[in-house]
Structure prediction request, 91 residues.
Amino acid sequence: MSILSRLFGGGSARKSAPDPETYNGFTITPTPVREGSRFRLSARIEAQVGEETRTHTLIRADMLDSEEAAVEASLRKARQVIDEQGQALFD
Prediction:
């Protein structure tokens, strides 16, 4: 690939979004946020409450060196929040 195509956005293809995970009736979607060369831990937690799908966005100060590590840490932290708060997360 030429240097011009890399300079003007023809470089690398964007990776696909991480797959959501179902955990104890909640859907966790890792959404790591790129900040410079690092990734901030972030995830979207969703649950069905009555007829409505409720969403909680989890964002932590934790920064990781790779997107894969941020995805795994986001899933782990979201599971912990679900275990601690359950449905109260949406109150």
Observations:
- Helices lie at 3-7, 67-85.
- The mean pLDDT is 88.
- The chain is about 25% helix and 40% strand.
